[in-house]
Each structure stands twice: as structure tokens, then as C-alpha cells.
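Posting here for the record, re: zinc ion.
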Amino acid sequence: MTSPAHSPAVSDNWVIPIPKWAYAVALVALTVTWLVLQENGIALGHAAETVHEFFHDGRHALGVPCH
Amino acid sequence: MPTNTDMPTYKGLLLRGVGAGAVSGLFAGLVGVLVVEAPIRAALAVEAARPTEAAGHEHGELFSRGTQVVGGVLAAVVVGIAVGALFATAYAGSRRWFTSKAPFVRAVTLSAAVFGAAALLPAVKYPANPPAVGDPDTVEYRTVLYLGLIAAGLLVAFGASYLASRLGHLSQPVRSTAVALAVVAAVVVLLVAFPATPDAVPADMPGSVLWDFRLASLAETATLWLGLGVGFGLLVDPAVRKVRQVSAV
Ligand SMILES: [Zn+2]
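Prediction output follows.
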């Protein structure tokens, strides 16, 4: 509690090691985004219409091309 | 003990990104219900007034309006969580991004840059359209244009941070001006180079409904991205906890 003013996070060589599984996380995140905002039947086939209609307001409101 | 959390790990950043994304997604979803829902309803009324069901998919067949409103909020939350995870990864990997600034400033600046590239830029070139406007035959082409412009915008943001790091020998005001001019030039080139949207707005769609919707949509994406940056910044900046400790002692 003597000198809490200096944070090691604020420095010029500020690097956080990114593990390999981070790429898997990024892939999952991109896939989820695509399923919610873009899926038109490529992956889910007929069920895509249900997904599409359920998230339909979100697709339009978030500015994604639709119809 | 607080020094332990000062040096963040990727896992810790990821959890904070997911948490901040869920909260900002919920806020964005509420903006959707309170602001975007009215012009959507007006656009659906225009669609319902058309003589034939010419549109590619019928609305309200599978789900009621109320369910679709809930789905709209849920879409914002799920997308918020997903982009929160991506944002945390980009934050962890952003070595050049305002390294001398506090984590909160870094997070908010990064989110503002991503909002500019992934939401504001496409909103200028390919503004959001309410239901009953898009042509189903061109949706794939429009999606390619939309995603291509976002990718190009993210490249510009990345290039700006790279350029700023290469101009370290210049004074701060000169460097900022040079980077800003380069960004403006790159954005103008993108806006001119990308082709116009292939669709014409149907004549029966009032301009007021169209633009109410477009501005409301921009309010929702702004809430999502800037909320993510502010929330993430509050969670990662050790200064937030330190102030609380000082005041508690
Ligand atoms: Zn639609």
C-alpha cells in the first residue's frame, strides 16, 4: 500500500501471451455471430428458417443485409 | 493482492470481454425494443399493405411479433457475447494501440475504432434497411459488399495504429494529424471504390420510416460497441478497484 500509483499494465512493452485455444474461441465467436446474423440455410438447412425468423428483428436492427 | 490482477491473463480478459459483451448486448437489445421497434412496425405495416406476398419470407408466420421482439433482444445479447470474446482477443493482441494510456482509455478507444469500421462505415455506404425494403435476389451480393467493407474498415483501423507506431519520431499533434488525414483519405477511397447498393428503395416506403429506422439502428450498434468498450474498460482497469480500496480505508 506504499506506492499503488504505478501500474505495470501501463508500459511500452505491454504484451499479453495469447494461448493457442484463443483461436478456437475466436472461431466459435465468429460462427455464433454468423449463425445469428447470416445463416440462410447453408449449415442448418430447413431449420435455418426458424433461426432466421426468430432473430429477424436483430438482423435488421444491427444493420445486417436481409431479405 | 491487487497487484495480482494488474497483469492480466488472456483468460481473465476473455471472461471480462464476454461479461461486458453480454451487458452491452442487453443494453443494445433494450435500445432495439424502445427505439428500433417502432420503425420496424411501421415498415411491416407498409409490407402488409402490399397486394401480393411477393417478399421472400413471410413475417409473423413462424413467430408472433412479441416473440420476434424477444428474439431481437436475444440476438443482440448473443452477438454482444461473441464480439466481446473477439474484442478481448484483439485487446490482448493490440501491442501498438495507445500503449502509454490507461487500460480504460485503451479499451474505449479500441471499441470506438471498431464501431467506426464495423458499424459506422457500413451505415454510411450501405445504410440499414427495415423489413419490406430489401430485394431477396440480391441479398448475397449485398452481404458480400457489407462484409467486404467491414473487413476493409478494420484494415484501415489496424493500418492507422501501425502508421502511428511508425511515426513515433514526430511530435504528438503532427503525428495525430498525419494519422487522421491518412484515415480520412483511406475512408474516402473505400466509399468511392465500393459499388453502390444494387437495390432501389420501394416507392411505397416513406422516407421518414426509412431514416427513422436507419438512425435507430445506428443507435443500437453504437450502444453495443461503445457499451462493450466502456464495460470492458471498467473491468480491466486496475485503477477502478484502487479508488474503491482507497475510499474504503
Ligand atoms: Zn428481413
